[in-house]
Write a structure and sequence with these properties.
- The protein has 311 residues and is α/β, with parallel strands linked by helices.
- The chain is 37% helix and 17% strand.
- Bound molecules: nicotinamide-adenine-dinucleotide (NAD).
- Nicotinamide-adenine-dinucleotide binds next to helix 1, helix 3 and strand 5.
Length: 311
């Protein structure tokens, strides 16, 4: 049984990891609840192997552990466009805190980087060897650039101190325990669709994304932290859909079709995004969940949450 620290453990991916790992490990969830929720982990609070630590990762911490999943960040554009400095500081200083803790306890640390480090890619699909096309001074730079720095710092801790650092580049992930109102496209389409509200689409809806269901992402992250692979390694699902295609699927399951309102594209929002997953596949890791199956699970999750009075 390992002791596993998950920073950002009350958020979407973090809380799903907590639930997955608790069966076999001691899990410490560290979060300042700035955009995550205790609701995501309330059923674990009395579990003898679970500890919740309310803490801001910008401040150093000292927590003995064997592995760290470092996920704490402001990951939704709605938040980071609103408070870019806090976004950069959390990713930058938080990564320093997490790496120092890993170094001290000789823990393996997985750093959650992102497809956003490729910026508006002029190579498609994006292999890990592609350096990206990123604006350093745009509204999204606080997130994209800080994650790039996270990768640099992680690699330098490995080279300088021998810290066991794994770098994963996560592509769009969705599923139960996503926040309903943080502006990500899948939750917007599903939640506003259920409520019969307008959904704003930035651009003409032909922009593409590759969406990975949360269970597949958990399998990939846990597979990588327990492997020899150091990364960077793309994680996700390489099926590519336009936003309009996703909207069409969801519309068919709702009482009324989605009300899409097409508005100006966001600055530096990529037109196409799809991971090249050769490295991931060579490790025997692969997404299995069909998009329709994953979306239906997520729709049911939101329907239940709304019934129980969330939001
Ligand atoms: P999330 O917003 O649901 O969770 C992030 C968690 O970090 C929240 O619980 C939040 O309260 C916590 N947090 C933020 N600032 C903190 C601070 N200063 N101190 C302590 N905790 C803090 O996001 P998510 O979707 O679960 O993403 C997890 C990680 O994966 C992030 O690092 C994100 O950048 C990365 N990622 C996610 C996606 C995706 O599609 N979900 C894609 C690429 C990368």
């Amino acid at each position: 049984m390992k002791t596993i620290l998950i920073t950002g453990g009350a958020g979407f991916i973090g809380s799903n990891l907590c639930h997955h790992l608790i069966a076999d490990h001691r899990v410490i969830c560290l979060d300042n609840l700035s955009c995550g929720s205790l609701d995501n982990i309330s059923d674990l609070m009395n579990h003898s192997n679970f500890t919740f630590v309310r803490h801001d990762v910008k401040q150093s911490f000292d927590i003995p552990c064997d592995q760290i999943y470092h996920l704490a960040a402001h990951a939704s554009p709605k938040f980071y466009l609103n408070d870019p400095i806090e976004t950069s500081m959390t990713i930058g200083l938080g990564t320093v805190s997490a790496l120092n803790n890993a170094r001290k306890y000789k823990a393996t640390i997985l750093l959650a980087s992102t497809s956003e480090i490729y910026g508006e890619p002029d190579v498609h699909p994006q292999p890990e060897s592609y350096y990206g096309n990123v604006n350093t001074v745009g509204p999204r730079s606080c997130y994209d650039q800080s994650k790039r720095w996270m990768e640099t710092l992680g690699n330098d801790y490995r080279r300088t101190y021998g810290t066991d650092v794994k770098i994963v580049r996560i592509f769009n992930t969705y599923g139960p325990r996503m926040k309903m109102d943080d502006g990500r496209i899948i939750s917007e389409l599903l939640v506003r669709g259920i409520k019969g509200e307008q959904v704003f689409i930035y651009g003409d809806g032909h922009q593409t994304r590759s969406f990975c269901y949360i269970d597949d992402m958990i399998e990939q992250l846990t597979g990588i932290i327990n492997s020899e692979c150091t990364g960077p390694i793309n994680c996700g699902n390489d099926q590519e859909f336009s936003i309009n295609q996703i909207a069409e699927k969801i519309s068919a399951w709702l009482e009324e079709p989605l009300k899409l309102n097409f508005v100006s594209p966001l600055i530096n929002d990529p037109i196409r995004r799809r991971p090249q997953l050769n490295r991931l596949h060579s490790m025997g890791l692969q997404a299995h969940t069909d998009i329709e199956e994953g979306l239906k699970h997520t729709l049911n999750y939101f329907l239940n949450s709304l019934k129980q009075g969330a939001l």
